[in-house]
Amino acid sequence: MSKQIKTIRPGGRLANNFNRILAYVGLGWFASMIIVRYVIKPLKTNSRMKENESLMNYLYEKQKTQQNMKEFDT
User: Fold this and answer.
1) pLDDT along the chain (74 residues), means of 10
2) d(Cα 71, Cα 27) in Å, to the nearest integer?
3) What is the pTM of this model?
4) Is the CB of residue 15 less than 8 Å from the CB of residue 9?
5) Which ranges in 7-40 belong to alpha helices (H)?
């Protein structure tokens, strides 16, 4: 009768799965960076651009009304 002897690695299951856990953490971080770079950042930029555009339009209208008031007064 020959029994196969199982080799025992120190550290248990966590040591065996450490590389796999580290790979999942790395892939999760990488995926989150891609999502932030190509999804969230452009959305923030577009909303900021629209806000700035509306502010500039408002200021332009105010400037035009002031110029009209000055021309009307003189």
Assistant:
1) 69 74 95 96 96 97 93 77
2) 64
3) 0.57
4) yes
5) 12-35
